[in-house]
Amino acid sequence: MNLFTRLFFHAAPPVLGAAEKARLDAWRRLPEPTRSANLASSRFVVVDVETTGLNLRRDKLIAIGAVAVEYGRIGLGDSFEIILQQPASSDKDNILIHGIGGTAQTGGVPPVEALLRFLEFLGNAPLVAFHVTFDKTMIKRAIRRYLGFNFKHPWLDLAYVMPGLNPPLAHRLRALDDWTSHFDIQNYARHNALADALSTAQLYLVAQEQAGHKNIETYKGLQDLEKIQRWTSSAG
User: Fold this and answer.
1) Which of 56, 83, 115, 134 is deepest in the core (most CB within 10 A)?
2) Contact at 8 Å (CB) between 116 and 142?
C-alpha cells in the first residue's frame, strides 16, 4: 500500500455536527438504488464536475452540476449546481477553463454542506456521466474526506454506452463534444458543470431512445452494454 493510499483510507474521520449527521443518516436510510430501474419511468441523475485540474490524486473538486432525467424527459426545474468553498483559488490557467473565479471559489459553500445538498438532490437515483472514472473519483474522494463514508452508488458511463449503441460511429466519435455535435446537441457554456451535465443529459435521452429500439429497457441493461463495450475496447 503506497503513501497516498494509506493517507486516503486512514485519514481521521470528519466530525459532523448533530444536524449534519442527521441529514446524512436520513440519506443513508434511503432504499438502495435499483439497477433494474426502467429507463422510461424512473429518475436518473446526470452529473458533471469541475476541478482544480486533471490529477485524480492531487486535484480537488470545485463544482458539481447535475440534471435529473425522469419519465424520459429532462426536468429543468430538477437540477443542481454548487461551488465547493476552497481554502485558496486554483491557478489562472485552471480558472480560464471552467470560469469559476477566485472569489467564487473562496466564497463557495462549505464542502460538508455542499455535499449534503448534492446527496439530498440525488436521493437514490442511479447516476449517469460521460467518462465516469473522473467524476466518480472526485465525488467519492470528497465525500469520504468531508462526510466520512465510502460513497457506493451505481454509475453508467455514456462514453461506452454510446459506442455500444452506435458501432459504426465508435471509431470516429470519442469525446463528449464529438457525440453532442453529431446529434446536434448544443452546450450554452462548455466546461460549466451544469451546462455540461445538461448536454450530457440530452445525450442520455438519445441513448434511452436508441436502447428502446434494441429492447434494452432498464438501467442494468445499459450497464451490461457498457461492460461489453469496455471489454471490446480493451480487446481491440
Assistant:
1) 115
2) no
The cell for 198 is 445538461
The domain limits of the chain are 41-235
Per-residue pLDDT of the chain (236 residues; tens, 9 = 90+): 454 444 444 456 788 999 999 999 999 999 999 999 999 999 999 999 999 999 988 899 999 999 999 999 998 899 999 999 999 999 999 998 899 999 999 999 999 999 999 999 999 999 999 999 999 999 999 999 999 999 999 999 999 999 999 999 999 999 999 999 999 999 988 889 999 999 999 999 999 999 999 999 999 999 999 999 999 887 65
136 Cβ contact list (under 8 Å, min separation 6): 127, 129, 155
User: Which residue spans within 84-223 are E strands per DSSP?
Assistant: 127-129, 155-157
Return the closest-CA partner of residue 10 out of 107, 145, 143: 145
Query: How many residues in total does the chain contain?
Result: 236
